[in-house]
Design goal:
Layout: E1 7-15, H1 22-41, H2 46-59, E2 78-85, E3 91-98, H3 103-113, E4 118-120, H4 121-130, H5 138-141, H6 144-154, E5 167-172, E6 178-184, E7 205-208, E8 212-218, H7 220-225, H8 228-238, H9 243-256, E9 263-268, E10 274-279, E11 282-289, E12 295-297
Parallel strand pairs: 3-4
Antiparallel strand pairs: 1-5, 1-11, 2-3, 2-6, 5-6, 7-8, 8-9, 9-10, 11-12
Helix pairs in contact: 1-2, 2-3, 8-9
Length: 306
């Protein structure tokens, strides 16, 4: 089998990142990319690499996933996560799981140990516990930052709109296999039971041997409407070398059609072409190609060639 240059791209959520969190968001995504890169350089699979990267982000309280996830309207935590691999189009996802630090591991469990694609709520938690997977409990995910944000919205002193949300990774391994994985605490002050794009195949994530792997981030209702992950990959396959331009156009359109909602995505094609774009003030991201040191940032212009 031919050898491919391994690639991993990660994001820490499209939206607005508070100034005091800028440095941490950049450092966190760089650390996640480095973790995934280490797996790939050691000959590991794209699934292992994507999960390793997402787990770093879930454990980092800077981000809205795992430890650091935002609260719903009632002050509770509900998590969604997903994973998909290209080699057999298998996917797994969980939604509305209460207070779990490592939801991406539950999603992988669904993909690898069940015939299903999506398991939700108490059923997902029971499945995880039966297999000894996951760290559950409010103490596993609560942070002072999440508590403060919830109180500010309740008091009417802040808006829940366009908060940087979701974390994700896409990876291409040495064998040419691709994977997308993501995890989120959802929208701040959401209705209990609300589910966005993250665990929905084709909208929040997609991986295909002929198209590539894509993960989205931002306001789920905007992303769902445009089936963004699949559509970005499909259109990019029609115009090789222009993935970033195409993805930027799609993100901008989705944002525009939903009153300026934050929308972003990361994408890697089977040939290693990468797109990192967002229609939002910020989106922390990091990229590692081969054995080169990861690069990272907080903004990526929505313009051709970025």
């Amino acid at each position: 089998m031919s050898s491919h240059t391994p690639v991993i791209v990660v994001h820490g959520g499209a939206g607005t990142v508070a100034p005091e969190n800028h440095a941490a968001a950049i450092a966190g995504t760089r650390a996640a990319a480095a973790a995934g890169q280490a797996v790939l350089l050691d000959g590991g699979s794209c699934e292992d690499a994507a999960v390793a990267a997402v787990r770093v982000l879930e454990d980092d309280p800077t981000f809205n996933a795992g430890r650091g996830a935002c609260m719903n309207r009632d002050g509770d935590f509900e998590h969604d996560a997903a994973i998909m691999r290209s080699r057999d189009l298998r996917s797994g996802a969980v939604a509305s799981v209460s207070a779990v630090r490592d939801a991406v591991l539950l999603a992988r469990l669904v993909m690898e140990q069940t015939p299903h694609c999506l398991v939700v709520g108490v059923g997902a938690a029971a499945l995880a516990r039966a297999h000894g997977v996951g760290h559950f409990g409010r103490d596993e995910v609560w942070t002072a930052k999440a508590e403060a944000a919830h109180r500010e919205v309740l008091a009417g002193r802040a808006s829940a709109d366009n908060r940087a949300d979701t974390v994700g990774a896409v990876a291409l391994d040495r064998h040419g296999h691709l994977c997308a994985a993501a995890s989120t605490g959802g929208v701040l002050h959401k209705l209990p039971g609300r589910v966005g794009d993250t665990p929905l195949c084709g909208a929040g994530f997609y991986a295909h041997p002929g198209l590539g792997a894509c993960g989205t981030t931002g306001v789920g209702e905007a992303i769902l409407t445009h089936v963004l992950a699949f559509e970005a990959l499909r259109r990019a396959s029609e115009r090789p070398g222009e993935a970033a331009t195409i993805a930027a156009s799609l993100c901008a359109a989705a944002s525009r059609h939903h009153n300026g909602a934050a929308v972003g995505l990361i994408l890697v094609r089977p040939d290693g072409e990468v797109a990192i774009v967002h229609a939002s003030e910020h989106m922390s991201w990091a990229l590692a190609i081969g054995d080169a040191a990861p690069i990272s940032g907080l903004r990526r212009d929505l313009s051709p060639g970025t």
